[in-house]
Amino acid sequence: MNETKNWMKIENRNLTTAAGFQAVGLHCGLKKEKKDLALIYSGINTAAAGVFTRNLVQAAPVNLCRVRLENPIRAIVVNSGNANACTGERGQTDAEEMAAAAAEALHIDARQVLVCSTGVIGVPLPINTVKEGIKAAAVGLDRGPQFDTDVAEAILTTDTSIKQSACRCAVPGAEFHLAGIAKGSGMICPNMATMLAFLVTDAKIERTLLQALFNEATDDSFNLITVDGETSTNDTALILANGAAGVEIEKKGELLRTFKEMLNHVCSELALQIVEDGEGLTKLITITVTGAPEKSGARMMARTVLNSPLVKTAFYGEDANWGRIITALGYAGVDFAPGRVDIFIGPYQVAADGCAVSFDEVKMKETLGRRNISVLIDLKSGPVEVTARGTDLSHEYVNINSSYRS
Amino acid sequence: MNETKNWMKIENRNLTTAAGFQAVGLHCGLKKEKKDLALIYSGINTAAAGVFTRNLVQAAPVNLCRVRLENPIRAIVVNSGNANACTGERGQTDAEEMAAAAAEALHIDARQVLVCSTGVIGVPLPINTVKEGIKAAAVGLDRGPQFDTDVAEAILTTDTSIKQSACRCAVPGAEFHLAGIAKGSGMICPNMATMLAFLVTDAKIERTLLQALFNEATDDSFNLITVDGETSTNDTALILANGAAGVEIEKKGELLRTFKEMLNHVCSELALQIVEDGEGLTKLITITVTGAPEKSGARMMARTVLNSPLVKTAFYGEDANWGRIITALGYAGVDFAPGRVDIFIGPYQVAADGCAVSFDEVKMKETLGRRNISVLIDLKSGPVEVTARGTDLSHEYVNINSSYRS
Questions:
Q1: Are residue B288 and residue B396 in the same domain, yes or no?
Q2: What pTM value is reported for the model?
Q3: Which residue in A91, B86, B257, B329 has the most C-beta neighbors within 10 A?
Q4: Confidence at residue B190, expressed as pLDDT on a 0 to 100 scale
């Protein structure tokens, strides 16, 4: 624990760490054997905030969540194995039925239920299977807190590991918590592109403030990771705040700063876990763009470099190919002075003022042989710094994404 | 020959088919053994037009060409094996020295010489080697027309084949020609990203008209192909018109229409040859976006689909994965109605109004097993149609681009 922080990470990453929340994950039959349905429930009303995919093609559940976010939310129901995307009007009806089934089983209003789906695109949802699963999950809730790994597992598709993060903060006479789970490992399930994240907190926080803080935290975490540059039809991150801890986060003050730090921490941890599970990854690449005049341009430059197939294959091949990095910067659509750019790979400078710098090939080979590779790009044109994370492009990525249906 | 055309393709694709042009390609020593220097020369002044990379990082020769395009050009000197990019002030001096050496050897003004380079980024040009090569090339010109394959070869880097196209048009009492060569096979030479094209015609045509026609022709050819979505630091396409045929192309009339057709033909043929030589290609993918309200959006959508790693790996795996196609359309940054989109792969419809259509898996397997795959995307929202070409993403692409230096 950092001594300047007045909050701490916790090992028990269960969503139910946050008071008043219950959660269940189980197998309902959308997948062959693995868990494929999760239900997250709050005994009291919550303020909800969410961020959604910017893809113009949006799955039915995304549309539903967007509209309902203003309501006092009580539950989120999530299925994996089917994205309920490109499913037309029937998709919309199915999403509503999922919410209605959860509402009935939990004795709440259907408008208080959010819905998420992830899996194959373009295949109608087997809605009866899902409804049976929801009933079983609601019964499961009565059995008390479940193992959170079940819930974290139930939202996965081709992920190879669960993603969780949690922290707590003690204040005089009380303690509040923030916990989250996520899924994503690139363009997932063979037909699919999805990142999902669910966070819960027992702090009390007004909805519009929660949304503003969540926007900022997701921009600096989930929106700074990339596996293959594909924006999905289902991307959704949701946060629920139920106030059960008896602590209120207000618009100003120390507690707001603490809550922001906790939120940034959990979002960043989950984002990092997603990249680390990136499809076919052999290298985790961290790009820092520094000396930038402003943030959105720096962000765009970092992401463009991380999405360049030539940069990605170069790192896969352990090649210090800075020419590909500066080329990608040049087509990022952001104005900058190429003749000022310095580039470092690991601790070694490879370019100064846009021109080559000779470096020790042996030491560089050692640096590039590691799993974690950091690149520093200094534009020497301003005070802003942005760090983004991505993966290399490996034979295994091609294997994973070309082997479906064949 | 199409009967409605009054021009025809010709088998002799030599640049010197166009009267008054001479060309030489030879080995000067930038590469180990292969030809690496080309000189294209006109005995009389030409009007020149050019289009250049939109990458913010631009090689020294690109800057030189851009400024000199207004002059009455007499020669183009091209080297391969070194891009003269990210080489600072020395690079600019080297580019000027290349032009000066050519001017001296050809007894013309240095301002009448254009310069192109392609190859490794960030390494200073061995200028003396290049200057010796230029002298030898100028001597070679005196020996009369050379084999054009030498010239087409001398501009290549990792290309596996030369790219040429030519046509002629007979008019009462005269005949004029248009011939071109190109290079490119994705991000080329290990450190490099380059497409070069050189066209010559013996028709007479005023410079600003030539530039306007060339802009249009390159937009509909070179700007509609993609191998890996990378925009290079050196991309250059140049056309020279010397009027030696005694035929003038004016701003209106039948001859303008004919010249446009010839120009579109040669640019499209060269562009197709570049894609067909795409790095690691196992499938040539042709995407037609039809029913679009306007061209620039349709172009962007076609290119976004062709650059999607998931679409590319799906075709590599012979998977009719239309969900990935509609997902890429959704993040292309162009407004459209997902619920109206029809998608066909080969002759088979796979999506109607944005939802799945069942198709014959056996017949689809046969279609996807072929080298050439066509995809039709009908937005059903307007009269515009655009066709773009790209490649799949194969293990071989990863091999080629990860194996340098290692």
A1: yes
A2: 0.80
A3: B86
A4: 30
